[in-house]
Design goal:
By secondary structure, the chain is α+β, with helices and mostly antiparallel strands. 55% of the residues lie in helices and 10% in strands. It is built from 19 helices and eleven strands. The protein has a four-stranded antiparallel sheet with strand order 9-10-6-11. The chain has a three-stranded antiparallel sheet with strand order 2-1-5, with no helix packed on it. The chain has a two-stranded antiparallel ribbon with strand order 3-4. Strand 9 and strand 10 form a beta hairpin. Helix 5 packs across helix 18 and helix 17 crosses helix 18. It is globular and about 70 Å long.
Amino acid sequence: MLAGYLLDPAEANYPLAMLSERYLGLDLAQDEPEEAGQLFGDPAPRVGTEAAAIGLLAPAMAERVERAGLESLLAEVELPLSGVLGRMQAAGVALDVPYLQQMSESLGDRMATLERTIYDHAGEPFNLNSPPQLRVVLYEKLRLSPGRKTSKGALSTDADVLEKLRDHHPIVGAILDYRELTKLKSTYLDALPPLVSTRDHRIHTTYNQVGAATGRLSSVNPNLQNIPVRGETGRQIRRAFVPGDANRSLLVADYSQIELRVLAHLSGDEAMAEAFAAGKDFHAATAAKVFGVPLEQVDGAMRGRVKQINYGLPYGMNALGLASRIGIAPDEAEEFIESYFAQFPKVREFLNRQVGRAAAEGFTATILGRRRYLPELQSSNPRVRDMGRRMALNAPIQGTAADILKLAMIKVDATLASSGLDCTMVLTVHDELVFDVADADLERSEQLVKDAMESAYELSVPLRVDPGSGKNWSEAAPAGH
């Protein structure tokens, strides 16, 4: 499965039958003998067929992996990582169920209040979850300016359309707030408690190692990687994740701006590397360069604008995108981007080179050789080509960051195992690792984890890890994260 993922990371999953057909030309379903008239057949022939297929597949796929230069990525990253993820899944993480139930009731009360407010503005009750009924209230009764239409030609009531109407009528803000609370309540507050194991009273997510084409991990049943980070409600949900008992804490270790550090390394831009090497606030340091002012004269607005560019450019953001994000005119945004690239010329060269190389070779690659194939770049549809361009820009950066996190997890797991410390890795979310640790071992565990993560891979700019600890996941968040 892992070899199939590295060879073609765009598939949704990698069942044995599909791999056998692709790499051996075998149809496993046809090769199984039929057992007529039996409701519960003997599983032995199917198991035998699958075992034989694996025996034939392994050398055939190993040869392809070697030919693609992916051998060390499979042997030294993905295969060892599967053991680390297995141990994390088995460990699970403790959940404060009474707290979540209390929060669910409180949110339910807020939703009921919002519902009454919305009905008052509308002048009548209606089904808030019905787009047709909401359309009638907003666009016919209250005569708000309609935004774009859906694919079927109806006026849209999507969140991004309503966001633009927020200041036009108080009902819109109330509807958006109601929707957000509904999603949080159904997705987390009501969904998480039933998933707590009766055996150990912990929640055990399943990590999907082959779910993202960039190499990132995802998690399912439940998905613990999309719990909102920003906003008070998201922080409240994270307070429900707690250590195993009163003498323990959660330790969080988060890579600081890892994708931007990867960009500085890949592009070889001296000015960007210098901004990191100084060890100061990176966004403020780059703002000082772009605006041509001393670091101490950089204000919040300057820093905020440059931060949007720092994070937007590797995702293919253009002047229109920047203009819409920071509320300025497109021509002003264009000038802003030009002055940014004037300070970091090698970043522009690298991004342009990435797209050209991906179009010529058909794929992009991370530092460790992980490939992402981009047939979109050859499409006759400009919109599809543009999507391919954005992926060509982002895949090597996000993919390299994902590879480094995987190397860090393998290193941290091995270092903790030989340390004798009572510290267990329980969660990974994007650039962050979470540990359940005995209070007596907290200080030493924090230093060990930080050292292992910062030395997981050597870039031309230093990797930095920000640690934090506390009695719940929210309290443990590192300062500034």
